[in-house]
Amino acid sequence: MKVLIIQQKMIGDVLTSTVLFEALRAHYPDAQLDYLIHTHTVPVVENNPYIDRIIEFTPQAEKSKKALWILAKTIKKAKYDVVIDVYSKISSNLITALSGAKIKISYHKAYSSFIYTHTIKRAKQTVQDCGLAIVNRLQLLEPLDIYLKTATPKIYMTTSELESSKQFLISNGINFQQALVMISVLGSGTNKTYPFEYMAQVIDTIVSTCKAQILFNYIPKQETEAQAIFNLCQPQTQQHIYMNLFGKSLREFLALTAHCHALIGNEGGAVNMAKALNIRTFTIFSTWIDKDTWNIFEEETVNESVHLKDYKPQLYIGQTEKDMKPNALALYQKFTPDLFAEKLQVFLQKLHTHD
């Protein structure tokens, strides 16, 4: 049997959907399991033992109808028995429709349901600690008689990657006897980025609470923004920040994060990757994102998260994500660090004991 899973776009989505592969492998040990994902997300699934083949959705396929058509024809030639379209947007609708697969599974949408043999309605709430993002993905396996309530995404690093990153940190003055914290200083967009001044106050709290060594998660083109946050930190805090130590590639970031005691900061792919590396997280959610979907594996002092809705629920009465999104920046101004300072300090104190 040949199975294709389609999950385009963001790193967090691609990582989260890998739970489907482990479940499928357990149920169909001899199946060929392939993954269609955006090129820039490939590093997060490298070395995954449950994925047989990665098919790249290139930037060209995203921008060009001709390139997308060629990709769809390539998929058809592969003769998949099952296509699971987790992405469920126009490009993946087309690929699935042309695939020729006998079984085609996706989420229920009025405009595209005719393409699929099975459609699943997303759950809107769950009691599972894995969160709705995983619960809803696992539901996509039910037409194949696979029923799971929870699953954990994992990232697979090589011994050489981990050893190389450890030596890199040591050679640049990192002391492994002290807490090492990765800060997700920037979100994937302005409306998913905690205000710089507030983020600097959070970093000040981290250093004053547990004297942690601080790494920033950013890419070279974001250096100006990262430097701006550094400049807003207290002088004594700045002495704990190692601005020159950052991953120049996604795999390098993963290898550095694997040695950290925690990742703290903006919700997004970095948080999901840290969890998949079994690193503690403290997540600051964007003011418009639905926390219930992405606060996966929430556990006190292990994986904690904060949202403006936790402290000012009246602002969200009768409002949807779509309603809140245009007001994200104004809402951020109300999401002051003092609201969750005590919760962060408790998290850090537990972290400092290295339990």
UniProtKB/TrEMBL annotation:
UniProt cross-references to SUPFAM superfamilies, sorted A to Z: UDP-Glycosyltransferase/glycogen phosphorylase
One Pfam family here: Glyco_transf_9
Keyword Glycosyltransferase assigned: yes
Entry keywords, A to Z: Glycosyltransferase, Transferase
Taxonomy, superkingdom: Bacteria
Name recorded for this polypeptide: Glycosyltransferase family 9 protein
